[in-house]
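Lab notebook: predicted structure, single chain.

Context: the supervisor wants predicted structures on file for every construct in the current expression panel, including those that have not yet been purified. This is the next one on the list. No modifications to the sequence; it matches the entry in the shared construct table.
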Amino acid sequence: MRISAITVCVNYSEHLRTSIERWKSGIDNLLVVSSPGDGDTIKMCQEHGVQCLQTNGFWMNDAKFNKGLAISQGFLAMLPKLRPNDWFLFFDADIVPEENWRQRLEEVPLAADCLYGAWRHNEGGKRIEDPGICGWFFLANMHHPAMQKSPI
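Prediction complete. Output recorded below exactly as produced.
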């Protein structure tokens, strides 16, 4: 199982700094999408040997913060490196996964035609209720036709 991942981090490097090594340990190919003006995130990516895509797409067409466009730009930049059966993961920069998150994921029989999410928990371990799938963690297989479209 290969996992390629994207996260968006603009002026949030202090959050991602606490988890980047844990994410890296379970991801085969990680891309951080940031702004050219966010020197802290760019420097942190360099320090941790992580690719950083810099884009002004967050504010195109007078958007307040177009995270979806930035994710799509990151996805298009990563596309040449993705293999047909790779798993694609998006996670929020302020999330710290369990130490053994990859091992636990591999223990579950994943279906290539499903989109997976994960519950968010507070620092005390209590699950944060959400009426739908939580938006901080999406995992999908590149083999699925929906993953072949742009934007995803």
